[in-house]
């Protein structure tokens, strides 16, 4: 979903991690599956590695309302500030959340007039500049998380009216979170990069908590992650593999991705899967395990993909690229986006109501499925 930081490919002490979200003091599995999650350990020591927790009072910023202009394209466009926007997530109820650089977080409510977006406050009032946000995910209309170029995962339990630092694993000092995905308020996965490993995973007890897993594959970079019940998928710069778990992250297996290119986005609906990446790469799966290359109409890098159902999906990429499929990713047709900026993420609240975001504050919106 996001650009690959070239510095991550150099040999360093950094470790690439996957984290899982569990609730309360559980043993890590609500399903009775024999394979355990990463161990839950009581946090009983100070962690001098971490910065002091910030003031969790939301910034006192005025709401900013951004509206879309009409145009000849079925996708209407708007520019929201100058910051790059990296992620958009849509809820069936009609809520839309957008995350971007310098703490940018925007919200569209289904009751709002037109396609307006309202800026939300993420962070503390003493921070001169907020960290870049690369991902935002919601379990329902109330509970959501966002994170990025920072060790913190921010959470909201009131539809984004306030965001505070979520309890999270503390055996590692996280440098970057590329992706978070929630299946429910107590079930999710995240892909992150950490430095200064302290060993086994730790978990805060109480509330919603993030559990650290040990370094899976230190020489690989994970850029997107998806969870569906106990199942999960990870893509990135992984040497031609898509990693898959069937037991809530207890074990991960690498399956041939049908390409050796870096994959930056993955979407799953039921048993149908689509992943996209560099040089126009698109791979598909009918069972979530075995993947093969699909014919792509473009050669530019693709960053994001979504499946509204098992048939209808969209992908976005460099140069305002916007593609649509109606057969589960087997074939793709370019759509007119009306922009030339890089698009990084796309989602739909219904079969026709869609949103895409990208470079330079670019936001696209359609009420016709782009047709």
Describe the fold and architecture.
By secondary structure, this protein is mostly beta strands. The chain has a single domain, classed as Neuraminidase, CATH 2.120.10.30. It is built from no helices and 29 strands. The strands form 7 sheets. The protein has a 5-stranded antiparallel sheet, with no helix packed on it. A 4-stranded antiparallel sheet has the order 12-13-1-14, with no helix packed on it. It is globular. About 19% of the residues have low confidence.
Radius of gyration: 19 Å
Output the structural class. Answer: mainly beta
Find the count of extended strands (DSSP E, 2+ residues).
29
State the CATH architecture. 6 Propeller
- Which CATH class? Mainly Beta
Q: Would you tell me which CATH topology applies?
A: Neuraminidase
CATH homologous superfamily designation: TolB, C-terminal domain
Tell me about the biggest sheet? 5 strands, antiparallel
* Strand portion: 35-45%
Taken in chain order, the helices and strands follow as EEEEEEEEEEEEEEEEEEEEEEEEEEEEE
Q: How much helical structure, as a percent, in the residues?
A: under 10%
Q: Give the CA-CA distance, first to last residue.
A: 24 Å
Strand order of the largest sheet: 2-7-6-5-4
- Uncertain stretches of 5 or more adjacent residues: 5-15, 22-66, 196-208
Query: What is the oligomer described by this structure?
Result: single chain
């Amino acid at each position: 979903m996001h650009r690959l930081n070239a510095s991550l490919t150099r040999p360093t002490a950094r470790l690439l991690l996957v984290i899982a979200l569990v609730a309360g003091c559980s043993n890590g599995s609500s399903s009775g599956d024999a394979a355990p999650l990463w161990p839950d350990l009581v946090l009983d020591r100070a962690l001098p590695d971490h910065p002091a927790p910030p003031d969790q009072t939301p910034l006192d910023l005025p709401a900013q309302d951004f509206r879309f202009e009409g145009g000849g394209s079925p996708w209407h466009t708007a520019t929201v500030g100058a910051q790059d926007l990296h992620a958009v997530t849509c809820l069936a109820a009609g809520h839309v959340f957008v995350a971007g650089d310098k703490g940018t977080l925007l919200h569209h409510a289904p009751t709002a007039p037109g396609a307006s977006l309202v800026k939300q406050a993420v962070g503390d009032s003493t921070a001169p500049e907020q960290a870049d946000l690369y991902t935002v995910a919601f379990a329902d209309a109330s509970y959501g998380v966002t994170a990025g170029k920072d060790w913190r995962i921010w959470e909201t339990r009131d539809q984004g009216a306030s965001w505070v630092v979520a309890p999270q694993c503390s055996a590692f000092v996280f440098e970057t979170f590329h992706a978070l995905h929630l299946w429910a308020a107590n079930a999710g996965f995240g892909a992150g990069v950490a430095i200064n490993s302290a060993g086994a995973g730790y978990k805060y007890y109480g509330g919603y908590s993030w559990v650290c897993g040990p370094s899976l594959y230190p020489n690989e970079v994970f850029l997107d992650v998806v969870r569906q019940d106990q199942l999960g998928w990870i893509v990135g710069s992984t040497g031609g593999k898509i990693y898959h778990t069937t037991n809530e992250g207890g074990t991960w297996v690498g399956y041939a991705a049908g390409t050796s290119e870096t994959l930056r986005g993955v979407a799953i609906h039921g048993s149908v899967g689509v992943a996209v990446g560099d040089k126009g790469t698109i791979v598909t799966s009918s069972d979530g395990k075995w993947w093969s290359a699909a014919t792509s109409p473009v050669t530019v890098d693709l960053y994001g993909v979504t499946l509204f159902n098992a048939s209808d999906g969209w992908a976005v990429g460099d140069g305002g690229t916007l593609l649509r499929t109606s057969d589960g990713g087997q074939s793709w047709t370019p759509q007119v986006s009306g922009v030339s900026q890089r698009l990084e993420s796309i989602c739909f609240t219904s079969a026709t109501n869609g949103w895409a975001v990208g470079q330079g504050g670019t936001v696209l919106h359609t009420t016709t499925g782009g047709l």
